[in-house]
Design goal:
By secondary structure, the protein is mostly helical. It has two domains: 330 residues, Na+/H+ antiporter like fold (Up-down Bundle); 43 residues, no CATH class. Helices cover 72% and strands 3% of the residues. It has a two-stranded antiparallel ribbon. Strand 1 and strand 2 form a beta hairpin.
Length: 440
C-alpha cells in the first residue's frame, strides 16, 4: 500500500483534476442559473466591472471577466505547459513507443471534429469556430473516469491523460497561430526580451521568486499588446522551467553528508547553539540549498499550482463564461449550424478520430494497446474525450465577435459535453463490468 507521500505525481494529478471537476460543475451551473434569474443584470454588471491601474498618466483596465480569462487563465496555461514538458521529457510521452498511441489518437481527435464542423460551417464568421470541437476537458474526463473506481485499468487512465495533454498542446498551437489579432512586432520583440531575462534567471539558478516574477509578468503584458493571446505567455514561460533536478543524486548525497559531518564537528547541536554558532547555521543553510537544488522546479510548481488552478481559476472561468441567457431569440434559432457543428464534432468526431487513428497506429505496429485495455474500453475513453467545456468555451470566445453566436456555441458545448460524458460513462461501466466478470 502506498503512503500519501509515496504516491506518484500522476496519482496526485489525477486526484486533483477529479475532485476539481465537481467544483467546476457547481460553478458552471451557478453561472447558467444566475444568468437566467431576476438577478441576471448583477451577473453581467459584475462580469464587466472595470479593474485596472494608472501608470505614467495612462489608465490600463479590463472588466473582471476579462481579467479572469486573460489573466488568471494564464496560470492555467502555465500548469498545462509544465504538464506537457514533464510528459515529453520524463513521462508518458518521453519515448517514441510510449508516445505514439496517445499522440496519434489526439491528432485524430482534433482533425476529424474540425473537419466535421467545417463541413457544416465553411463560410462567414461561423467558419472561424472550427477549433472549438478540437478540445478535451481533462478535469471533467478524468472526473467521470474516477467515478468508476478501481475497475478502470491504470493504462486507460494514463492513455486518456496523455491524450488530453497532447490535445491541450494542439489547442494552444491553434490559439497562437489561428486565433490572433493583428500582430504587433514590437510587442513580440519585447516579449522575447522578457523571455530572455527569464531564461537567464533560470540558467543562473536565481533563488528569489521576484527575479522570475518580473520577467514573467513582462512576457504576459507584452503579449497583451502583441495580438497573440496573452495566455500563451503561460505556456512559453512554463517551457523554460526545468522539470529535472538541478544536481545529480550523487552530488546531493555527498554535499548533504559532508555538511552533516561538519555539523557534528562543530559541537552539540541545539536550538540555542544554532542561533549562536554561525558555523552550524552555515552548514544547515547549505543542506537547505542542496535540498532545494535537488527538487525539480517544474514538478514542484506543477504540484503546488494544481490546487488553485482546480479550485479557484477554472471555477472562476466557468462562472464568468458559462452564463448564457436562454431567451426566446436564442432558443428559436437553436440548433443552428454553429451549435450543430460543435455537437457533431465533439460527440461523434472525437471518438471517430481517436478510434480511427488509434486502430491505424496499432495495426501498423507503431504501438500496442495499454496493458489491460481493450478496444471497447478505448471507445468509452474516446467518448469522454468529447467533453470539451473549458478549452472549447475559451476558443469560442476567441473565434466569434457576435455575442449571439458565442451563446449558441456555448449551448452546443454544454449539450455535447453532457452527451459525451453520459455515453462514455455508460459504455465504460458496461465494458469494465463485463471485463471483471470474465476474470472471475
Amino acid at each position: 500500500m502506498k503512503s500519501e507521500s509515496g504516491s506518484s505525481l500522476f496519482e496526485r494529478f489525477l486526484h486533483s483534476q477529479a475532485s476539481g471537476s465537481i467544483v467546476l460543475i457547481i460553478a458552471a451551473v451557478t453561472a447558467i442559473v444566475w444568468a437566467n434569474t431576476p438577478w441576471a443584470k448583477l451577473y453581467h454588471d459584475l462580469s464587466h466591472l472595470d479593474i485596472g491601474v494608472v501608470f505614467a498618466g495612462k489608465t490600463y483596465q479590463m472588466g473582471l471577466a476579462h481579467w479572469v480569462k486573460d489573466g488568471l487563465m494564464t496560470l492555467f496555461f502555465f500548469v498545462v505547459g509544465l504538464e506537457i514538458k514533464r510528459e515529453v521529457l520524463i513521462g508518458e510521452l518521453s519515448s517514441f513507443r510510449k508516445a505514439t498511441l496517445p499522440v496519434m489518437a489526439a491528432v485524430g481527435g482534433c482533425i476529424v471534429p474540425a473537419l466535421i464542423y467545417f463541413s457544416i460551417n465553411n463560410t462567414g464568421e461561423a467558419a472561424n469556430g472550427w477549433g472549438i470541437p478540437m478540445a478535451t476537458d481533462i478535469a471533467f474526463a478524468l472526473g467521470i473516469l474516477s467515478i468508476l473506481g478501481s475497475r478502470v485499468p491504470a493504462g486507460l487512465k494514463v492513455f486518456l491523460t496523455a491524450l488530453a495533454i497532447v490535445d491541450d498542446l494542439i489547442a494552444v498551437l491553434v490559439i497562437a497561430v489561428f486565433y490572433t489579432a493583428q500582430i504587433n512586432i514590437n510587442a513580440l520583440l519585447t516579449a522575447a526580451f522578457f523571455l530572455g531575462l527569464f531564461f537567464i534567471a533560470v540558467r543562473l539558478h536565481a533563488r528569489r521568486p521576484l527575479i522570475y516574477l518580473f520577467p514573467a509578468i513582462g512576457v504576459w503584458a507584452s503579449l497583451m499588446f502583441s495580438g497573440v493571446h496573452a495566455t500563451v505567455a503561460g505556456i512559453l514561460v512554463a517551457l523554460l522551467v526545468p522539470v529535472k533536478s538541478g544536481i545529480e543524486p550523487e552530488q546531493f548525497f555527498n554535499d548533504v553528508w559532508h555538511n552533516i559531518k561538519y555539523l557534528h564537528e562543530t559541537g552539540p547541536l541545539t536550538r540555542d547553539s544554532l542561533a549562536a554558532n554561525p558555523k552550524q547555521w552555515k552548514a544547515i543553510e547549505q543542506i537547505y540549498i542542496t535540498t532545494e537544488d535537488m527538487i525539480p522546479p517544474g514538478v514542484y510548481l506543477e504540484k503546488h499550482f494544481h490546487t488553485p488552478q482546480a479550485f479557484i481559476i477554472l471555477p472562476l472561468f466557468a462562472l464568468f463564461s458559462a452564463g448564457v441567457t436562454f431567451n426566446s431569440e436564442i432558443m428559436n434559432a437553436f440548433p443552428d449550424s454553429v451549435s450543430l457543428g460543435i455537437i457533431l464534432g465533439l460527440v461523434s468526431g472525437k471518438p471517430i478520430g481517436i478510434m480511427l487513428f488509434s486502430f491505424l497506429t496499432v495495426a501498423a505496429g507503431f504501438a500496442d494497446l495499454p496493458t489491460g485495455v481493450k478496444w471497447p474500453h478505448l471507445f468509452g475513453a474516446s467518448l469522454l474525450a468529447g467533453i470539451g467545456f473549458t478549452m472549447s468555451i475559451f476558443i469560442s470566445e476567441l473565434a466569434f465577435s457576435d455575442s449571439a453566436m458565442i451563446d449558441e456555441a456555448k449551448i452546443g458545448i454544454f449539450i455535447a459535453s453532457l452527451v459525451a460524458g453520459v455515453c462514455g460513462f455508460i459504455i465504460l461501466k458496461k465494458t469494465l463490468q463485463e471485463n471483471n466478470e470474465s476474470h472471475q
